Amino acid sequence: MSSAVVVGASGGIGRALVAALAAGGMNEPVFALSRAQVSQPEPVRSLSVDITDEASIAAAAQAVGTAGPVGLVLVASGLLHGPDIAPEKAIRALDPAAMTRVFAVNAIGPALVAKHFLPLMPRTERGVFAALSARVGSIGDNRLGGWYAYRASKAALNQILRTLAVETARSHPGLIVVGLHPGTVRTALSHPFRPQAGTPGVFTPDASAAHLLRVVSGLQSRDSGQTFAWDGQPIPP
């Protein structure tokens, strides 16, 4: 049995994914990676990682590798807002320092996870590398504008995943690489921007995790390189 890795396991969706994977029993152990280690029951193992620090990612990959092959990697980390960071309503609000931080978490971090965890994943047997993307990262679906840094970072992530899919089609033909849009989820990331409670299409973290894992379980080789919404529908580039 191969292991599963969730990066960003301290966030709302990340915690729910860890719990669902542990309960499902399809992967063991389940590694919960986050900046703040949280005590976890078996078969979950908690490891410290900073997605903006390549050395910590490399160290985590080395530790995970001692448990054997990795069949599933889910990158659930993400940054939309925080101290001195807010989605831009207009170009005049663009802050290069904030934009750099958003790209570091949303695009560069997942790429570094792929760099260090890909060697642990199966070459010919089925495996999945997935990262949480967002519908607003779609260039073709952008009708409202705004949110420059977040949109661009997720578009960059989608391109990174597409490029990884092209490479791994040769080096790891059993691996499926996708982006996943979780929908609007009741987490700290979406809190300032989501509709009121009871609005259709707004999910709890547990419900979102269940949708995402259902999508993951149904993926086929031809899906590699695409981004899918929580309901399994592809999102245009």
Automatic annotation (TrEMBL):
Lineage top rank: taxon: Bacteria
Gene3D superfamilies listed in its UniProt record: NAD(P)-binding Rossmann-like Domain (3.40.50.720)
One GO cellular component term: cytoplasm
GO molecular function, one term: oxidoreductase activity
SUPFAM superfamilies referenced in this protein's UniProt entry, alphabetically: NAD(P)-binding Rossmann-fold domains (SSF51735)
InterPro entries: Fungal_SecMetab_SDRs (IPR051468), NAD(P)-bd_dom_sf (IPR036291), SDR_fam (IPR002347)
Pfam families named among the record's database cross-references: adh_short
Name of this protein: SDR family oxidoreductase
Taxon lineage: Bacteria, Pseudomonadati, Pseudomonadota, Alphaproteobacteria, Hyphomicrobiales
